[in-house]
Write a structure and sequence with these properties.
Length: 143
């Protein structure tokens, strides 16, 4: 397993990029999936360009990424449809920032920073998707 491990993560990244490309190109209405098609295609191109396995991740690094990967999986496969795009984006982003921010969780200033970063990012995402690109996003359930 130790000899296989350095190649396992890049292979999983390439496989997930292929699945993302497939999923984005087979959804309807196709107009609603232009942005995911562009992003997934770029992701696949970048993953396939990694011939020297630059994306080598140690087992310790991989294990530290698992909680964030779990949040992302819940976000993509459940939260967007259940909560709506912007609510689930804010929730997932805040969770990821809280999980990986090295600032102490007992200090009010670090929580303020996390909330501000989340709010600013969601506002930017809203401006880009809804106002500038006019891309359809899953409707909000609670707003």
């Amino acid at each position: 397993m130790n000899q296989l491990y350095p190649f396992l993560i890049p292979s999983l990244i390439k496989l997930s990029a292929c699945l993302a490309v497939y999923a984005s190109y087979t959804q309807t209405p196709s107009e609603a999936f232009i942005f995911p098609q562009v992003i997934s295609t770029l992701w696949l191109i970048l993953a396939l360009c990694d011939k020297n396995h630059v994306m080598r991740i140690t087992q310790e690094d991989f294990l530290s990424l698992l909680p964030g990967l779990g949040i992302c999986i819940v976000y993509v496969f459940w939260a967007i449809d259940f909560l709506g795009f912007y609510t689930s984006t804010a929730t997932a982003l805040f969770s990821l920032i809280t999980l990986y921010d090295p600032a102490p969780h007992t200090v009010l200033k670090s929580w303020t920073k996390r909330v501000l970063i989340t709010g600013i990012c969601v506002i930017i995402i809203y401006l880009i998707f809804a106002i500038i690109l006019q891309i359809y996003t899953p409707p909000e359930r609670f707003f």
